[in-house]
Write a structure and sequence with these properties.
The chain has 12 helices and 13 strands. It starts with 5 loop residues before the first strand and ends with a helix. The chain has helices at 26-38, 50-57, 77-88, 103-112, 124-145, 161-174, 192-196, 204-209, 216-222, 247-257, 277-282, 294-310; strands at residues 6-8, 14-16, 19-23, 46-48, 66-70, 93-98, 116-119, 149-154, 180-184, 224-226, 230-233, 263-268, 285-289. Helix 2 runs parallel beside helix 3 (77-88). The longest helix is centred in the middle third of the chain and has 22 residues, at 124-145. By secondary structure, the protein is α/β, with parallel strands linked by helices.
Length: 312
């Protein structure tokens, strides 16, 4: 039995609730049908017509949770993507299928609002992973709602935020016996691995820079274990190299981690605050660490006030 129900719009167009794929070529249509069968989606979830078909079918308030749209025959792909995302609304996810295997194209699609960009020829493995990754990313929000995500921020340097984050994660793992992950987001000067006397992982930066590739195997290459229950993500990147840490990368990473670890503790440098509103919004607890100085009190007030804006 297909697990996806159909919704009807005011114009009589039925849409499948979980997923719909709008493709332009027979090979891609076959792949989408194969994935739908594997995920127990409705046989009506794969349609011909590409992104034009998606625009004709989907109406505001009546969108599948995930839409795969082929743009290879679109005369105005950027405009069509923008229009489709507006119809789908912020709660739903667009995956774009194109012909250009170029990182610039991927970044453009993400900037337009798509969550992923796949390249032809499409394979069942790639599509299935992309669809399932949508669920993995939503685990970050689930973790926060379940009280499982803690963010520790030092309001100034040298106040002991990393010590608190490291010890908090260690206590959760070793005294509370909870599977715990500790993420050190200071990619150049982080000291959580040093404090625990373990080596830094080799794949943390790669995981942040390639959120579309995240899976359990990829994540395992970035994790260093400290005992049976504590997983640590940390790195020491060259000081002269800029590493981009965007919201989608962190959301995807936490979503993947939270499938295996009951608690997630994030040690976040204050300079990342302006770019991590989503992380702060999804956290169950945000701990601001300060010393007893006038500067420290001032920074606490400023950051507390700013968080209201960052989390919206």
């Amino acid at each position: 039995m297909a697990k996806s129900s159909s919704l009807s719009t005011l114009f009589g167009n039925a849409v499948v609730e979980e997923y719909m794929g709008f493709l332009e070529d027979e090979k891609s249509l076959e792949v989408s049908r194969e994935v739908c069968k594997a995920l127990e989606y409705s046989a009506d979830a794969t349609l011909d017509g590409g992104i034009t078909g998606a625009l004709n079918r989907i109406e505001p308030g009546n969108s599948p949770k995930v839409v795969l749209a082929d743009i290879t025959k679109s005369m105005d792909p950027d405009g069509d993507i923008t229009r489709l995302i507006r119809k789908m609304g912020p709660e739903n996810t667009l995956i774009v299928l194109g012909a250009s295997n170029d990182v610039g194209e991927f970044r453009k699609m993400i900037a337009l609002g798509a969550k992923d960009y796949l390249v032809k020829p499409l394979t069942a493995e790639v599509l299935k992973d992309a669809v399932e990754n949508v669920d993995r990313q939503s685990q970050a929000l689930y973790a926060a709602q379940s009280g499982k995500l803690t963010v520790v921020v030092g309001v100034r340097g040298g106040v002991g935020a990393t010590t608190i984050a490291t010890n908090l994660a260690w206590i959760m793992a070793n005294e509370e016996k909870l599977p715990t992950a500790l993420m050190d987001m200071d990619l150049h000067f982080g000291t959580t691995t040093l404090s625990l006397d373990i080596e830094t992982g080799g794949g943390f930066r790669e995981a942040l820079e390639n959120p579309h590739r995240l899976d359990k195997l990829f994540l395992d290459s970035a994790i260093v274990k400290d005992g049976d229950r504590l997983a640590v993500l940390g790195t020491e990147e060259p000081i002269d190299e800029l590493v981009e840490v965007n919201e989608e990368s962190i959301d995807a990473l936490i979503g993947e981690i939270s499938q295996d670890y009951n608690q997630v503790v994030v040690d976040m440098p204050r300079h990342l605050l302006p770019t991590q509103g989503s992380l702060l919004a999804s956290a169950d607890t945000v701990i601001l660490v300060s010393d007893q100085s006038l500067d420290g009190m001032r920074y606490i007030i400023r950051i507390t006030q700013a968080m209201t804006t960052l989390q919206t």
